[in-house]
Fold:
Amino acid sequence: MIIVMEHNATAEQLNRVVKYIENKGLQTQVNNGTVLNVVAVIGDKSGINAENIAAMDGVREIKKIQEPFKLVSRVAHPEDTVITFSNGVKIGGLEKPVLMVGPCSVEKDFDGLLKVAIAAKEMGCQFLRGGAFKPRTSPYDFQGLEEKGLQYLAKAREKTGLLVVTEVMDTMDIALLCQYADVLQVGARNMQNFKLLKALGRIKKPVMIKRGPAATIKELLLAAEYVVANGNPNVILCERGIKGFDNQYSRNTLDIAAIPIIRKYSHLPVIVDPSHGTGKRYLIEPMGKAALVAGAHGLMYEVHHDPDNAMCDGAQSLNIEQFKDVTRALNKVIGRIDYDNKNNPQTY
Amino acid sequence: MIIVMEHNATAEQLNRVVKYIENKGLQTQVNNGTVLNVVAVIGDKSGINAENIAAMDGVREIKKIQEPFKLVSRVAHPEDTVITFSNGVKIGGLEKPVLMVGPCSVEKDFDGLLKVAIAAKEMGCQFLRGGAFKPRTSPYDFQGLEEKGLQYLAKAREKTGLLVVTEVMDTMDIALLCQYADVLQVGARNMQNFKLLKALGRIKKPVMIKRGPAATIKELLLAAEYVVANGNPNVILCERGIKGFDNQYSRNTLDIAAIPIIRKYSHLPVIVDPSHGTGKRYLIEPMGKAALVAGAHGLMYEVHHDPDNAMCDGAQSLNIEQFKDVTRALNKVIGRIDYDNKNNPQTY
Amino acid sequence: MIIVMEHNATAEQLNRVVKYIENKGLQTQVNNGTVLNVVAVIGDKSGINAENIAAMDGVREIKKIQEPFKLVSRVAHPEDTVITFSNGVKIGGLEKPVLMVGPCSVEKDFDGLLKVAIAAKEMGCQFLRGGAFKPRTSPYDFQGLEEKGLQYLAKAREKTGLLVVTEVMDTMDIALLCQYADVLQVGARNMQNFKLLKALGRIKKPVMIKRGPAATIKELLLAAEYVVANGNPNVILCERGIKGFDNQYSRNTLDIAAIPIIRKYSHLPVIVDPSHGTGKRYLIEPMGKAALVAGAHGLMYEVHHDPDNAMCDGAQSLNIEQFKDVTRALNKVIGRIDYDNKNNPQTY
Amino acid sequence: MIIVMEHNATAEQLNRVVKYIENKGLQTQVNNGTVLNVVAVIGDKSGINAENIAAMDGVREIKKIQEPFKLVSRVAHPEDTVITFSNGVKIGGLEKPVLMVGPCSVEKDFDGLLKVAIAAKEMGCQFLRGGAFKPRTSPYDFQGLEEKGLQYLAKAREKTGLLVVTEVMDTMDIALLCQYADVLQVGARNMQNFKLLKALGRIKKPVMIKRGPAATIKELLLAAEYVVANGNPNVILCERGIKGFDNQYSRNTLDIAAIPIIRKYSHLPVIVDPSHGTGKRYLIEPMGKAALVAGAHGLMYEVHHDPDNAMCDGAQSLNIEQFKDVTRALNKVIGRIDYDNKNNPQTY
Structure:
């Protein structure tokens, strides 16, 4: 931590800062610049509050040097986290990228869901996704089938062997979801629902955290830190597009660079959702390919047996025929990815 | 709702769209443009899903004409909502702007809190704010005193007559909070925690919703719609700064224009938080004044009896002396606001 | 300047960085942290290139401590810049805020322009603004009357005594504009047209620089630094709204906090344009008031004698009657601003 | 064009709008909604100004249906533009993606530039890039060698056969640049320097326009429209990252989705600059690959013979050895791209 003093800070103000830090048992080193003085703080900063120092008279700015996340960082944990499921499927590290597909929300028509699941299995996908509890911006939109939806997902798993990914919206639903799902997904709008993250730290199932629409990469990693710090190391990160100033042609800006950045700074697996990330069906294939060659550990995208009559997000869903075409193209890219033994790898 | 067809859409594709809509019991009107054709949909659109239509072949784009919020809109409810508390304090409409002040979080030192509350009362403030449950980006930061914090707030209310505003983070805590608080605040990061919003629709206490750091005004109004549609009409909106590309000199961009915009489109009261909105102590006064003259129904800002040792957000908190100076300046502005009888007024 | 090394940087890499800096004649101080090492650089950094250091092996990040702007900074020049015009009008410091008004573009109808100018004079405004050269996003929009427009502005000045502000779009037009204008305005889209800024440093007339739609405050101050460093100290800054993720209800997000921030870090005057900043006529009055109480040295807004037939930006222009109402309200606020002798003042 | 009336607009206000449009020789069609009325305008809208209509009483909003760009749109020109250079190199359509490489700025050391050019030729690149005129945010940074830099580029072309791409910053320099360069590049900060764009419409050399850091895709296409409408059809677009709220780990957010979007709506070639787009050397390879598989017609990235001593942007430049490694990896991806005969293709 570096404390920058104002250009007109007094010696007394500087001394007060130094003393404050040393009273906390940390060392300081003062660098007298030609214009500004700075104080470097050495040692374990977890006992001091940067905001308090920033509030002291004569302090201009605090510059943090270390990342605030610890357990999810490569500094503390250089090897990739690889999550292994009961059926042998793996996510992370140098493992083959996985595909998570399914409708935005699980609907009344179970046969439609099953059609999707069968097609997914046939195309080599590993996960069936579908929302039973749905976060919707408007209270007038469809809010999900709830437990019935979970039962449908479980039934589709039984028939196909696909693993089930579904969203958890509230701490009260965690126990129920654990009965049905293989991965509990935290939606983008709940990425900083800290009570929920803490509670998910106390379960055993893997948790997938979607990046909030205006979350920085650091905030995403800190959200993961909540889960890991509370006892659950099995966290998957998901890039799903961030809000930008241009939403005319795509709903969000899919931040492909987040993939190699996250892989550099964290050991956790990272997947990409090109359906929500763009909001447009025709962009799933090119953005899915882009994510794979940039190093994504998997993709999540939407398929619906009848997008024209979907209860949500039809415009970004593929129908089954389109799904097969897109998945064939994506599988071709997956087949060509080369692996090596370097730390930050998966070359193409 | 206006459906724009692609320039090369076929007559068959156009007919399919028209038929789809008419099957839902709505009327259509086709406008044949020189380049693009558009279909206008007339009638109650709540039964149709725009995304499904957007997903149909030959459809380029859907343009929505009506606002998706209804109950919080001035169209349906032209008069201002004014919320009246048991002690006669009012928020909204042409009422005098209120001041909500206090520490970011309630801490162990009750006497410190009481000092703040007494100063607040002395300066004419109406509300004491303070977090008992704290949402923190990092799991390693102070997470709040929980019920003990609520008890402290209640005790300070008893001694000063101030009303209490405090944050609710989880549906499970609502009942507890209702025992202690006069206003339940939904934090910015929970603005789209829809389970929480729905649950808050079923209580009687006023709810204050903070705008999410990347939430549009429409999304904020839809969050309020969740509460109102579930039965609780007493909602206060709070602008607290949005994320922008420039965070070097202020933590967020405080969107002052949101005040007159919200007052034009909605009847709900809107207050402004210049502490979180800027993250800098020296900006509280100028931005507080700016918010008041732009029509805010109140301000919320942070005071701490000892900011250098605050558990959170010290850099944006005023100490008691600074608080009195700033509040004196703000009260001067409040005293000069003129009121008239027009619908969207509060001239200055 | 602080150089942060990677957690796994070698001693050799660290030494190479230190040697590089010392070879440039600067001093270093190495702080060995528990996880990361940092190198503080002491002395005049103008001879070294931070990017080169950032490119060296083992370097993680460079943190700059000093602001990159010098001449426009309060550090080097603590007193406010006040610009005085030949007719005694002053902008900056503790002077009364000025009003710059007029149509977006000067049009063929001189009588219309004159009507606006007469009304402006009558309401106590000091400047007539109007574009003769117009930057337009689309090549199919009206591009301005060019020299004829300048002549009209000069004629209106002659008849009313108002000073003339108009936009310069190209280095080739500077000489011509200097014949007619009292202030040359650099448009938001040209804020980083560095050839133009340099050339404006070589003239005597005051220059007003509008903040680019995605420019940080630092970038705006560096644009001003270009003009001042090339010899022209008379620079006015203009906040006119930045691009955000929400443009449904206002075209831009007017960053009111930029006013007190700029006044803290720079001595240059800063004015605000609520017309372009919001794009909505009804927002001019509340946002103009907000800017004034937050410390703006002036306002610029659009008036047209016949907005329905304006060649550009009709929706954000006031007609003459509306202009008088709004200006009356703004003058009331200006009349109530109190001045004191502190450095960063203009209290309200 | 769709004109949405306010919910309380009067019949008279509606009639006034209709009459205004019909007086301009266009047809209208009024759709009476249950809440709002809308007026559809049919015919060539180039004679009417949407902003004027937006300014009329009772009008709530204008929704534009057609894209404002014409010549660069696929609607008017469905076939891809392919630009062919004198040496047979082609950019656009289904042609093999090109590589444009070189230092950020041309520096005094010609031998260094030549080393880069020789390596580029050896790796199969087609273009040498390098700035002779440099736009720099700070006036204290290196501003370029100017004509001497151009001479060096031309000499390197002579020795290697590479084509030369270099930036034009001012209308006054166009003639000079045309003597030396094969492609004139418009920098991101000049993307809306309309005088410059118009002047570039009158030359014969291809023009490459970089997307402004906060420009929407529509604004980029309108910038290209300026050049094409003034007579020069040979325009290349370049995505180089946009400003977002997260710049901690990458300087900009590289908008990979812009590639398939531009290819859908325009016939112009689009290339990607992963050096400026991320600001980090280690991101060039993964983002370069991502751009290629998403359909980019080429890449531009920075190489310097000695990045530690580069005059600008060292941190995002590769040294020659790194350049060869990265280019080998990119060439492998280029070699695997499949082509078909569909309009918007280049499958992978």
Remarks:
- Residues 11 and 58 of chain C are 9 Å apart (CA to CA).
- The interface with chain B takes residues 214, 216-218, 242, 244-246, 248-250, 253-257, 259-261, 264-265, 277-278, 282-283, 286-287, 289-295, 329, 332-333, 336, 347-348 of chain C (CB under 8 Å).
- The first strand of chain C starts at residue 2 and ends at 5.
